[in-house]
Design a protein that fits this description.
This protein has one helix and three strands. By secondary structure, it is an alpha+beta fold. A hairpin with a 2-residue loop joins β2 and β3. The chain is elongated.
């Protein structure tokens, strides 16, 4: 079973340190791994209409 999630983040992309954004994404993906039986997991950050969007593509085991 494959599931796609879009999570808009209420953060100003211009004010964020790129390293902080990457660590945030790693933390969010870690929560998915910890609480769900995940076979595959991928996260992508993109900017859209002045917001950061975290796209998560996961396949449950």
């Amino acid at each position: 079973m494959e599931t796609r999630l879009e999570m808009p983040l209420a953060l100003d992309p211009e004010a964020l340190d790129p390293g902080l954004v990457e660590r945030l994404m790693v933390e969010v993906l870690g929560v998915f791994r910890q609480h769900l039986p995940v076979r595959s997991l991928e996260g992508i950050l993109k900017r859209q209409e002045g917001h950061l969007i975290l796209l998560v593509n996961l396949e449950l085991a």
